[in-house]
Design brief:
The complex is a heterotrimer of chains A (438), B (403) and C (237).
Chain A (H helix, E strand, L loop, with lengths): L1 H14 L1 H28 L11 E5 L20 E2 H10 L4 E13 L8 E8 L3 H4 L4 E4 L4 H5 L4 E4 L1 H8 L8 E4 L2 E9 L22 E4 H6 L9 E2 L7 H6 L3 E9 L3 H20 L10 E4 H7 L5 H31 L1 H9 L4 H38 L11 H27 L11
Parallel strand pairs in A: 4-9, 6-8
Antiparallel strand pairs in A: 1-11, 1-12, 2-11, 3-4, 3-7, 3-11, 5-8, 6-9, 7-8, 10-11
Helix pairs in contact in A: 1-13, 2-11, 2-13, 2-14, 11-14, 13-14
Chain B lengths: L2 H9 L2 H32 L10 E8 L6 H14 L3 E7 L9 E6 L9 E8 L3 H5 L3 E4 L8 E4 L8 E5 H7 L11 E4 L3 E9 L15 E9 L2 E8 L4 H15 L3 E8 H8 L1 H35 L1 H9 L4 H38 L8 H25 L5 H4 L2
Parallel strand pairs in B: 4-10, 6-10, 7-9
Antiparallel strand pairs in B: 1-11, 1-12, 2-11, 3-4, 3-8, 5-9, 7-10, 8-9
Helix pairs in contact in B: 1-10, 2-8, 2-10, 2-11, 8-11, 10-11
Chain C lengths: L1 E12 L2 E13 L4 E5 L6 H8 L7 E6 L2 E2 L5 H11 E4 L11 H12 L3 H14 L15 H13 L5 E5 L7 H16 L3 E5 L3 H4 L4 E6 L2 E2 L4 E2 L2 H10 L1
Parallel strand pairs in C: 3-8, 3-9, 6-7, 7-8
Antiparallel strand pairs in C: 1-2, 1-4, 4-5, 9-10, 9-11
Classes of the chains: A alpha+beta (438), B alpha+beta (403), C alpha/beta (237).
Bound molecules: adenosine-5'-diphosphate (ADP) and magnesium ion (MG).
């Protein structure tokens, strides 16, 4: 029976090609617009590290200005950490894993004489960074704690940089010259493009990950330039790097891996105790206000999904709604247009329910066609967004199979919803009504 | 006009009419709110920067060699740039206005850590700063060469002079901005700095910041390892000068790299990319929406004309001229659209209130509502014209021919 | 008042030419009641359409009230139909979405009467056809005979000099047909010229004259009938 209805549906779609085309186009455009925006929102709000997002915590210590207005008791402690605090927390090793990191811009001098030096972005971090954030290697691996302690000049290269500098060879043990100093390659990463770039949203939630990784201590020791955001509530006391490191300037992102709730509780107690202890030393002049946010909480807190994207999402849903009203109108026109056919079928013994199924299947077919076409339009829409926004959205405009299924599902559900009322009207056409002369 | 019977006939087939009206209403709500968002973005983008934008470009220089002598490099670079034909002036600075990166500080009228400062964007320049930016000095005087100090990355001492924008002066001295001239204010909580000049307008680095137009210039060359040159060319010379400058700087010194050469126009474009893209997307959305709504009207009107062919023939036989039939369908659409836009006005305001609450957007300007109503009424009339024309050409003989 | 000379009507559809009327000539005088009979497809409706300015003819000359019709524009034709001609159709052609009042109102609107005048006329003609009490009803709520009476009322409301009816009783049973015929005869007695197409010879005899059409031509010998005795004969039948 289903295949018979399917055949009837296809026949009916073909009988009114213009009306059918209009309906399919309306659904396709609605789905296309909606899915384009939904995809962008979906990617923006996606979980960049689903396997452990609930065990990774961004650490915020409120070391801030006592004169800062209280904002109805909702003062948000600084996103980043001071050097003093980051070092103290690193040293304490109270979490299962912890890393402090920041970013730099360095100049890489390739070996060959004819090759020009170029600038690379570097993440200055700790040995735990690699296992903690699940980075995978093509060659070698991360460095170890000893390298951090001993200020070893080691470097982990991204796949792209290894490609550019070493032609993709296994470069473990080779030397790379960075801003006038040699570093030894210990690892080459596999692809690593977390979206959002959760471990440093302060410097751009959707910017590309850094191209090389070096020990944080090395970067501090050799005074490598800091390239991220630096916020100070208090002037630096004296000239020189020492004074800066001891200042109340926050410029370090600090993350801790805490495997379960009790570890989290303990760590919270630890940082609060640390803050109390700092208060005794005259720092942390504000009331106790430290935070641990896991990855998704932190993305939420930082409003990684931009308002514009959410506004567009709202508008695109309304847009789909308009397309659906359109489709309802056209389906109604179509179904009532063949009321002669319907009453004939009723007179020949078709039951209301079989007519219902027949018309819902026809609506579903329209939805399916609209969904497939809409998927194509969404793809075009995403290319359009990519063209408009450029590299900024590079990581946001790809659809995965979840989105593909969502698009088709949304189209079919929309079409079925749109078909409900027209179908009901079609089913209530009297069996003989249309046969007698008006 | 036969509005009464049209209305009564319509009420016998409400659904189609309601669907079109609803569609028009939601279309209008989306359209007006989208236009309002576009206007807001446009207002943001069209604020003048105060700079001679079309003739400015910047290029970054990053030293990397161990024995890189930054001070000498900067002095020689500037001398070479300023001597280049086609270049009006050039400065070395820490950042470029509108670029999204830069320094901000707080200035306060009284010294002390407990006092709130006024946030301000800060640029290190020398005595060529004003001329290079092309900003207009309203009061006071420019820096002189002897004012300009050299500053290491981790230094904390500030020079004793600054030139600020009028917006900054107004923020610090709301009663009389002009009185800011000659005043001593405090930077880094306690260090005194005297305002020696006020420029009319200059935008800072972050377009989204409410202190965007609060800017201070400090007479200092920076030795931060990485630096930018901002270069102002003769009108129309920028594009030919840019590659020459890139070559000149790259060749002059092998201990550094030059990168990120961008015209001010490009910097502005990059900085406002999301705003301008949003405007384009919204424009596209509106066009698409109106197209869909019109197609819907065409579809339903055609259907209704087909359904009423016999009735139209009868009316013709009873003496209706073609024009009367045309008018019938146009009037019918007008009534439906009018209902739609009236409902639309309410929906528009509702949606706007919702958006103000959730996204702190601005209120729509009142005239958008009537303009959109008129526009959609016109769209409806245009869309229905085709089907109405077809209706009017139904021959009167249909009345006797069709059974 | 109606004069057709050598009218021909050719329908061209693709390659097929249908001669619906050939060299058709007819005179109808003021106040006459002419019935038109003939087999199906002989051209009766075509003749009526041309007479009522619903269709343009291919060749010949047609004067209505002494005026050459072929010179009229489309909208002039509409105006003539509206003022001088009333139509009654086989399938009534009431507008299903409008109630009786609004249905009768349709031609009056086109005429441009003010609303008081329209109301007066509508009430009067609905009174005449005996349906004044059902003014607010929709056509679907009436029987076939009642619907045709409304259609007649609609045709009369503008006080036309000419009433054209195409098988007005074709969709009615004989009882209803009779009552509608009485109404039409009465209209004729009050001075309106009537041309009525029918295939029922009994009804045709109620007219003052019968025109028989065969193959698009008036067949020989218009039959003059005396209206009075026949009418009473039918009425008693
Ligand atoms: N619109 C038309 N196109 C082609 N042929 C037509 C058309 N209308 C009528 N005819 C033909 O003209 C002839 C006369 O038709 P008609 O006047 O309706 O006959 P009657 O009313 O006497 O039954 C028929 O052969 C019919 O098929
Ligand atoms: Mg006929």
């Amino acid at each position: 029976m289903f295949s018979y209805y399917l055949k009837l549906g296809l026949l009916s779609i073909r009988r009114n090609p213009l009306l059918s085309a209009l309906m399919i186009a309306a659904i396709a455009i609605g789905i296309g617009a909606c899915m384009t925006i939904i995809t962008v929102n979906y990617v923006m709000s996606s979980n960049p590290i689903p396997t452990k997002s609930e065990q990774l915590f961004h650490v915020q210590l409120d070391s801030w200005d006592p004169n800062q207005p209280e904002d109805d008791g909702n003062f948000e402690p600084p996103d980043q950490m001071t050097y003093i605090d980051a070092m103290a927390l690193m040293k304490a090793q109270k979490a299962y894993r912890q890393v402090a990191s920041n970013k730099s811009s360095l100049v890489l001098e390739p070996q060959g004489d004819d090759e020009r030096p170029f600038s690379v972005t570097s993440r200055n971090t700790w040995a735990d960074f690699f296992p903690m954030f699940d980075l995978r290697f093509v060659h070698g691996g991360g460095w170890d704690d000893a390298s951090d302690r001993n200020l070893e000049r080691v470097v982990v290269l991204s796949k792209e940089i290894n490609e550019r500098v070493f032609g993709g060879e296994n470069s473990i043990g080779r030397r790379v010259r960075l801003s006038g100093m040699d570093y030894q390659v210990v690892g080459v990463l596999d692809e690593f493009h977390p979206v959002p770039k959760f471990f440093d949203v302060t410097n751009g939630a959707f910017s590309d990950p850094e191209e090389i990784y070096i020990p944080f201590n090395v970067a501090v020791e050799y005074e490598l330039p800091r390239n991220g955001n630096t916020n100070c509530w208090k002037p630096v006391d004296g000239d020189g790097i020492e004074a800066f490191l001891n200042s109340e300037c926050a410029w370090i992102q600090f993350w801790a891996e805490l495997r379960d709730n009790s570890e989290k509780q303990e760590y919270m107690a630890f940082i609060n105790a640390y803050a109390e202890q700092q208060k005794e030393l005259g720092r942390f002049p504000r009331p106790l206000n430290n935070r641990l946010n896991d990855v998704m909480e932190w993305m939420e807190d930082q409003e990684v999904v931009e308002d514009d994207a959410r506004v567009m999402l709202g508008l695109s849903i309304l847009f789909l709604f308009v397309c659906l009203i359109n489709t309802i109108g056209l389906l109604l026109a179509k179904f009532l247009g063949k009321s002669g056919d319907i009453s004939l079928r009723r007179a020949l013994g078709a039951s209301r329910s079989s007519l219902f199924i027949q018309h819902m299947i026809e609506s579903g077919l329209v939805g399916l066609a609209g969904g497939v076409l809409g998927l194509g339009l969404a793809w075009l829409g995403l290319r359009g967004i990519e063209m408009l926004f450029g590299d900024f959205v590079e990581n946001m405009v790809s659809m995965d199979w979840v989105m593909v299924l969502t698009a088709i599902g949304l189209a079919i559900v929309s079409a079925l919803l749109a078909g409900l009322y027209p179908t009901w009207r079609a089913c209530s056409i009297a069996p003989a009504g249309q046969l007698k002369l008006q | 006009m036969e509005i009464g019977p049209i209305w009564r006939a319509m009420m016998r087939n409400k659904t189609g009419a309601i669907l079109i009206a609803l569609q028009i209403a939601v279309t209008m709500a989306i359209m007006v709110n989208a236009i309002s968002i576009m206007q807001e973005k446009d207002r943001m983008m069209s604020r003048p920067s105060g700079l001679d934008e079309h003739n400015l470009f910047s290029i970054a220089s990053v030293g990397f060699a161990k024995d890189f002598n930054e001070r000498v490099t900067i002095e020689e670079d500037l001398a070479a740039l300023r001597a280049m034909p086609g270049i009006v002036n050039a400065i070395q600075s820490n950042a470029v206005p509108l670029s999204g990166s830069g320094w901000s500080m707080g200035l306060q009228t009284e010294p002390g850590a407990e006092i709130d400062g006024t946030g301000v964007g800060l640029y290190f320049v020398d005595e060529h700063g004003l001329d290079t930016y092309g900003v207009n000095l309203l009061a006071g005087e420019n820096f002189s060469a002897s004012d300009v100090a050299w500053r290491e990355r981790a230094a904390t001492e500030w020079p004793d002079k600054t030139i600020i924008t009028r917006a900054m002066a107004e923020a610090m001295f709301p009663d009389d901005w002009a009185s800011a001239l000659g005043k001593t204010v405090y930077i880094a909580d306690t260090q005194p700095i005297t305002i020696t000049g006020i420029v009319e307008k200059m935008q800072g680095s972050w377009p989204g910041w409410d202190g965007f137009e609060r800017v201070m210039l400090v007479p200092t060359h920076t030795l931060f390892g990485a630096t930018v040159y901002l270069i102002r060319t003769e009108p129309g010379m920028r594009d030919s000068v840019m590659p020459q400058v890139e070559e000149l700087l790259a060749d002059r010194n092998k201990d550094r790299i030059v990168r990120s050469m961008r015209s001010m126009d490009e910097i502005r474009e990059r900085s406002y990319r999301s705003e301008s893209s949003m405007i384009k997307i919204l424009t596209f959305t509106i066009v698409l929406l109106i197209a869909i709504t019109s197609l819907g009207i065409v579809g339903l009107a055609s259907f209704s004309v087909n359904r009423r062919t016999r009735q139209i023939g009868t009316r013709r036989a009873l003496g209706a001229s073609k024009l009367v039939i045309l008018r019938y369908f146009m009037t019918e659409n007008f009534i439906i659209s009018l209902g739609g836009v009236l409902l639309g006005a309410a929906l528009t305001v509702g949606l706007n209130i919702l958006m103000i609450e959730t996204f702190s957007l601005t209120r729509i300007t009142w005239y958008l509502v009537p303009v959109a109503m008129l526009l959609l009424l016109a769209v409806g009339q245009i869309a229905v014209f085709g089907p109405a024309r077809r209706a009017s050409s139904v021959p009167p003989a249909v009345a006797t021919r069709t059974v | 008042m109606l004069s057709m000379q050598n009218i021909s009507m050719v329908y061209r559809a693709d390659l097929v030419e249908t001669h619906a009327l050939r060299e058709f000539s007819l005179e109808v005088k003021e106040g006459e009641f002419v019935s038109v009979t003939g087999p199906s497809g002989s051209g009766k409706t075509t003749f009526l359409n041309i007479a009522g300015l619903l269709e343009q003819f291919t060749d010949g000359r047609y004067e209505l009230d002494g005026r050459d019709v072929s010179a009229l524009t489309d909208s002039e034709c509409s105006a003539v139909r509206n003022e001088k001609i009333g139509f009654v159709f086989q399938s009534f052609n009431l507008i299903p979405d409008l109630n009786l009042f609004d249905n009768v109102d349709v031609p009056l609107r086109y005429r441009g009467f003010n609303s008081a005048e329209r109301k007066r006329r509508i009430e009067k003609v609905l009174e005449t056809v005996g349906l004044a009490s059902r003014m607010k009803h929709l056509p679907s709520q009436l029987s076939g005979g009642q619907q045709q009476r409304v259609a007649i009322a609609r045709a009369l409301a503008g006080e036309p000099r000419f009433l054209l009816a195409d098988e007005p009783t074709g969709n009615l049973d004989s009882q209803m047909a009779l009552s509608v015929m009485e109404l039409i005869s009465e209209i004729n007695r009050s001075g309106t010229t009537i041309i009525m197409v029918t295939h029922d010879p009994v009804l045709a005899e109620m007219a003052s004259r019968n025109v028989h059409i065969l193959d698009g031509r008036v067949s020989n010998g218009d039959q003059e009938t005396t209206a009075e005795p026949l009418l009473s004969q039918v009425a008693t039948a």
